[in-house]
């Protein structure tokens, strides 16, 4: 297992971060154009070969006898997704650069599967990063074509990854908060993918605004964040409506809007990511 794969994603060296964060730049333009589309818009995938879809697999460790807390699992997923993107191996010339750049420049897709016992141990040798938060563990992997997915991943189930809601308490005071839509129930697997999108978008927007010092400080915490279910008042107050650019500029709120392939309708805002 690679050094720095566990714990809170491992601190990222500032020089390494400076050399790798540009990999997220394509997200900035795509974020703006996607949010400018009508609310129910979705990508046209009619001519897409499912075997050639490129996605980031994520594996949630859910042991039968001792399942993790749902919130901790989602926080681990949010950190793990970004930790893979900003791993030093994704910098120009690094062994992961081409795969990551190709994925970020296309459609950002993730799929979450569940594993326990020996199946969890088996995936630790595949290229990726494992993050643990409060006893919950998630491993996010280098993006790959569906057709190239190794059996250690393809044999894992996507369904059955839900967990009972928990009461996590107040959000961390010095970390971004990822607010889940109270009107769009999602499984833990779907939510894990959505909060992973959220941390990527936050990092891209911070870099795009020249806030690399803040991004480096976040990286030093292992991209720690809080995931919380928003109440109606919080969601209404933070929701940018038809002006997401202003929401980011004035309130540092970023939006994750789903294409609607699974569980939610096209155009659903699934997460509001509030920078501390």
UniProtKB/TrEMBL annotation:
Lipoprotein keyword on record: no
Gene Ontology MF annotations: peptidyl-tRNA hydrolase activity
Pfam (any one): PTH2
Keywords: Hydrolase
SUPFAM superfamilies referenced in this protein's UniProt entry, alphabetically: Peptidyl-tRNA hydrolase II
Gene3D superfamilies in the cross-refs: Bit1 (3.40.1490.10)
Top enzyme class: hydrolase
EC code(s) of this entry: 3.1.1.29
Reaction catalyzed: an N-acyl-L-alpha-aminoacyl-tRNA + H2O = an N-acyl-L-amino acid + a tRNA + H(+)
Highest taxon, organism lineage: Bacteria
Name by which UniProt lists this protein: peptidyl-tRNA hydrolase
Origin species: Saccharopolyspora hordei
